[in-house]
Write a structure and sequence with these properties.
The protein is mainly α. The chain is built from eight helices and no strands. It has one domain. The radius of gyration is 18 Å and the shape is globular.
């Protein structure tokens, strides 16, 4: 069963990424959808799961504090990339680094998405250690947003100056990550409260990606009502998918 879930996660993630590539001409709409989806994943999937796993061991306000910490850590990493890039640009001998900032941000964002997918797989494996019923609920919830994970991975790489080949490699990494996470849980166990804190951190990462990168970029050159509606649609689709999966 776990092998089937890993294959399904791979196929769903890859399908989302290929869709993003196919509709690249309407990238602003996809960016808008991705912004809503990323923020929705943080609020409707990662945070509730973090609070549930930490229940009774970590106070809710502490879980939310870890989310804020994740947001601020990502902010500092992003700003460090930004300032280092401009330091390179100020030196004539480093003119070849003109795109350094964009590629670094794309790597940072795509790497975060892949790490979150790895944690998704770990969450599935650990849930099955508790019981098959719990494992299936978590697996369905993960599969519900894997499609948007693939979509978002392609978007953040292409949006930050990455070539299609680089985006496809990151998409492959993101698609494989859940299966690797599932397989890894055969060799260890993690306390629920620790996993909850990790998920809270990633919720902060996702909130930063959605609010500071995807959402502003989707409206930068295309401030249309349709782009806004796509953002709302992205949030609504993820909300419905996660709600049905958890129901």
């Amino acid at each position: 069963m776990l092998l089937g879930i890993a294959v399904a996660a791979f196929c769903t993630t890859f399908a989302g990424g290929l869709l993003a590539l196919r509709v690249a001409r309407r990238l602003q709409w996809i960016l808008g959808f991705s912004a809503g989806a990323v923020v929705a994943v943080a609020f409707f999937d990662l945070l509730p799961e973090a609070l549930e796993l930490s229940s009774g061991k970590v106070a809710p306000v502490s879980v939310l504090a870890w989310t804020v910490a994740g947001f601020l850590v990502y902010l500092c990493l992003d700003r460090a990339v930004f300032f280092n890039a401009h330091a390179h640009r100020d030196r004539p001998s480093h003119s070849e680094h003109t795109g350094w900032e964009l590629h670094s941000r794309g790597t940072l964002f795509a790497g975060s998405l892949s790490l979150q997918s790895l944690l998704d797989g770990i969450g599935i494996g650990l849930a099955f250690q508790a019981s098959s019923a719990v494992g299936l609920i978590v697996a369905v919830a993960v599969l519900a947003h894997d499609f948007s994970d693939g979509l978002n991975t392609m978007n953040v790489v292409l949006r930050n100056g990455g070539k299609v080949g680089v985006a496809l490699r990151w998409l492959l990494a993101d698609a494989i990550a859940p299966g690797l996470g599932i397989a890894s849980t055969r060799f260890f166990t993690v306390e629920d409260d620790v996993l909850g804190i990790i998920l809270a951190l990633f919720a902060g990462f996702f909130l930063y990606i959605g609010a500071s990168d995807l959402l502003p970029e989707s409206h930068r050159n295309h401030p249309t009502m349709l782009t806004t509606l796509m953002t709302v649609l992205g949030s609504a689709v993820l909300y419905v998918a996660v709600t049905l999966a958890r129901g």
